[in-house]
């Protein structure tokens, strides 16, 4: 009987598409590079404990980063960083796929300590 219950439980878990959800960095910040290029976008993130920090190239200070930090204790609201540039809160991704997947709700932990995202408008200016 125990094996039957275990088998049914595993079947339901796999057949219902159980998946993890991750807290993620906003793709871009509010600092516009130019009208034609758009805003600066995520280059990399770090995660420690219950805090994720998202790093975007600074337009105002070329060669530096704007770091936006979000914490689970603050319900993923901005806890550090320039409020005129950073989004007020981070976002959730139901697929929890790399490269932008810093914090996994399923395990209540960081997926890694660091992740490189790169992409359009993400390099140092």
Task: Please describe what this structure looks like.
This protein has one helix spanning 2-15; strands at residues 22-24, 28-34, 38-41, 44-48, 51-57, 65-71, 77-80, 91-93, 103-104, 109-110, 114-116. It has 125 residues and is mainly beta. Strand 4 (44-48) and strand 5 (51-57) form a beta hairpin.
Question: What is this structure's SSE topology?
Answer:
Elements: H1 2-15, E1 22-24, E2 28-34, E3 38-41, E4 44-48, E5 51-57, E6 65-71, E7 77-80, E8 91-93, E9 103-104, E10 109-110, E11 114-116
Antiparallel strand pairs: 1-8, 1-9, 2-3, 4-5, 4-11, 5-6, 6-7, 9-10
Quick summary of this structure?
The protein is mainly beta and 125 residues long. The protein has one helix and eleven strands, in the order αβββββββββββ.
List keywords for this structure.
single chain; 125 residues; mainly beta; five-stranded antiparallel beta sheet; four-stranded antiparallel beta sheet; 1 helix; disordered N terminus
Basic shape: globular
- Backbone structural class: mainly beta
Order of helices and strands: HEEEEEEEEEEE
The average pLDDT score comes to 88
Strand order of the largest sheet: 7-6-5-4-11
């Amino acid at each position: 009987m125990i094996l039957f219950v275990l088998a049914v439980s595993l079947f339901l878990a796999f057949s219902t598409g159980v998946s993890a959800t991750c807290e993620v960095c906003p793709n871009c910040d509010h600092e516009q590079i130019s009208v034609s290029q758009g805003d600066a976008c995520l280059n990399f993130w770090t995660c420690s404990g219950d805090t994720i920090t998202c790093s975007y190239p600074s337009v105002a200070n070329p060669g530096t980063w704007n770091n936006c930090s979000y914490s689970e204790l603050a319900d993923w609201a901005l806890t550090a960083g320039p409020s005129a540039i950073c989004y007020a809160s981070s976002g959730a991704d139901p697929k929890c796929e790399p490269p932008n997947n810093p914090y996994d709700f399923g395990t209540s932990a960081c997926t890694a300590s660091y992740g490189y995202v790169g992409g359009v408008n993400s390099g140092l200016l």
